[in-house]
Amino acid sequence: MYVCICNALKCSQFREAAQGGAQDVTSAFKACGAKPRCGRCFEEAASLIEQSLAPMEPMPHAIAAE
Ligand code: FES
Question: Which InterPro entries would you find in this protein's record (predicted)?
Answer without folding.
Answer: BFD-like_2Fe2S-bd_dom_sf (IPR041854)
